[in-house]
Structures are given as C-alpha cells and as structure tokens.
Design goal:
Structural class: mainly alpha
Keywords: Membrane, Transmembrane, Transmembrane helix
Helix content: over 70%
Shape: globular
Protein name: HupE/UreJ family protein
Largest sheet: none
Strand content: under 5%
Number of strands: 0
InterPro entries: Put_HupE_UreJ
Pfam families: HupE_UreJ_2
C-alpha cells in the first residue's frame, strides 16, 4: 500500500493539473461574484464543494453508489454552466446580501457531482480497495490544498482587476461567467450521453 503522502500528492496534482481544467473552471466561476474582501464567503463555498465531493468520493470508493462515467462527463460542465448562469441572472453582484445559503447548497450539491469524477481517478489508483481510509483521507486533503491554491490565484487575479485596475464588478462577473458558460456549453455538447 502507498503511504499517506503519496495520495496527498496525487490529490493535490489532480486538482491543480491544467489538463483537468473543468474543476478549475468550476472554482473560477464559483468565485466570480465575490471580491477579494469577501474571502470568508469564498472559503465557505470551497469548503461546501469539498464536503460534497469528499462524501461522493467515499461512497463511490466503497462501491455504495456508481454512476456511469459518460453521465458524469456531461454533468460536470453542466454544473459550470448552471453556476455561470446563476452568477449573471440569479445573484446580486457586489452586494454582501448575495444569498450564501443558496450558493452554499449549490456548491455542496455540485461537489457531489465533481466527486464522482474524482472517484474514477481515485479508484484506479487504489491498490487494495478494502483499505480505503488512509488513501481517501490523503487524496481529499490533497484536493483541498490544491483547491485553496487555485482559489488564491483566482482571488489574486480578481483583486488585480477589481481593486487595482478598477474594473466594474458587474462587468468582471459577466465576462468571467460568460466565458465559463461558453466553455461549459461546448464541453456539454462534446460529452452528451444520449
């Protein structure tokens, strides 16, 4: 069996790998409606996402649930598209009254879906499926650390554009969310399962 740090590193590399841009794109669009000063809200959302994908990762790894990968490959860009659409028409950009409960529930639910994709990768790495606890813990912590790094970069870029260059927050959100929605729509069409 591989040690804890092996799975920690794999989890970190999995989320921070640009080849797996769909998870990074989801984090980008999740953060688009927030300013750097709202970092606590961002951390709450990322934690909700982590809880969601951790639960699903555990359930799939323990073979309690199973979803065909072609459906997951369609659902992941769908989560990005819905989040981007919500950012533009369903949120109050720039205002602290943005419904954190709704955003939290969305991040948690969409985390369940993203966890299904993580689980396919994770299951392929498991040498002994009966001893899943340490690998699962290491992999999840690695993913969380990778997500925090990605979010720090996103928040830094947001700070640059919104607070230094003084771009309008609404314009920033529409640009980022629109680009993410376009990329997600292309991916949805490429991965349709019907």
């Amino acid at each position: 069996m591989h040690p804890f740090d092996f799975y920690l590193k794999l989890g970190f590399e999995h989320i921070s790998n640009l080849a797996g841009y769909d998870h990074i794109l989801f984090l980008v669009v999740l953060c688009a409606v927030y300013r750097a000063q709202q970092w606590r809200n961002i951390l709450i959302l990322v934690t909700a996402f982590t809880i969601g994908h951790s639960v699903t990762l555990a359930l799939v790894s323990l073979e309690i649930i199973s979803i065909p990968s072609n459906i997951i490959k369609f659902l992941i860009p769908t989560t990005i598209f819905i989040t981007a659409l919500h950012n533009v028409i369903g949120s109050n950009v720039g205002n602290l009254s943005v419904s954190m409960k709704r955003n939290y529930a969305m991040a948690l639910f969409f985390g369940f879906i993203h966890g299904m994709d993580f689980s396919n990768y994770f299951k392929a790495l498991l040498m002994d499926p009966s001893d899943v606890l340490i690998p699962l813990l290491g992999f999840n912590i690695g993913i969380e650390l990778g997500q925090l790094l990605v979010v720090a970069v996103i928040v830094g870029i947001s700070f640059l554009f919104l607070d230094i260059i003084k771009a309008k927050h609404r314009d920033w959100n529409v640009f980022i969310s629109g680009a993410a929605a376009g990329m997600a729509l292309i991916s949805m069409l490429e991965n349709k399962f019907w």
